[in-house]
């Protein structure tokens, strides 16, 4: 069950954080410019550096979301950067995914996290059903943990129950965008990329280390 007190505490921290936009933008652009050369850690590093890696990826996802204003791209980018997954074309493809194409459905923290898991565990061989099954297993684990952590998967439900107390669709009108900004929506909505990237990263580290679902979140 979601710990709403902890989520609210995190939202207050995000709303009050001093965001160095210039530094965040520079790091984000540098990560993309460097490319994504696969760099999967060994099992010992996955276990020993787990908490440091999780904290780093969570922070980067929050910061990247503040810069790009796209929860799906920022979630995926933080994980892609950590493990050297995918390419800039993946980020381009994720452009319309916040709110699942602005329909108010699946949160970008979910879609970005699932894409990152697919990049890690999926296969270039379309007939590799073993890899597909393994990827789906990790995806199912991700969905379970995101639901347990946040309590919902869709933008309206998350915004109403966790972030704002009501649904604030910033893309619906200029007035909605103004209210979203006034209530520190871009700061607070970094919560979901941070959570999505952290959960996806934790699952990848577990897979590397050979741990099962009980290995953490």
For the sheet with most strands, the description reads: none
Helix amount: over 70%
Gyration radius (Cα, Å) is: 17 Å
Task: Enumerate how many helices there are, as a single number.
Answer: 13
Strand proportion, as a percent range, falls in: under 5%
Write down how many β-strands occur, each being a DSSP E stretch of 2 or more residues. Answer: 0
Going by helix content, strand content and strand pairing, the class is mainly alpha
Which geometry do the CA atoms define? globular
| SSE sequence, one letter per element | HHHHHHHHHHHHH
**Total tally of structural domains:** 1
Mean of pLDDT: 93
Distance between the termini: 13 Å
The poorly predicted ranges are 213-217
In summary, what is this structure?
70% of the residues lie in helices and 0% in strands. It contains 13 helices and no strands. Helix 4 (50-68) packs antiparallel against helix 13, helix 5 (71-83) packs parallel to helix 13 (191-209) and helix 9 crosses helix 13 (191-209).
Characterization of this structure:
70% of the residues lie in helices and 0% in strands. By secondary structure, it is mainly α. The protein has one domain (4-211). The longest helix is centred in the middle third of the chain and has 22 residues, at 129-150. It is globular, with a radius of gyration of 17 Å. The relative contact order is 0.17. The model is unreliable at 213-217 (pLDDT under 50).
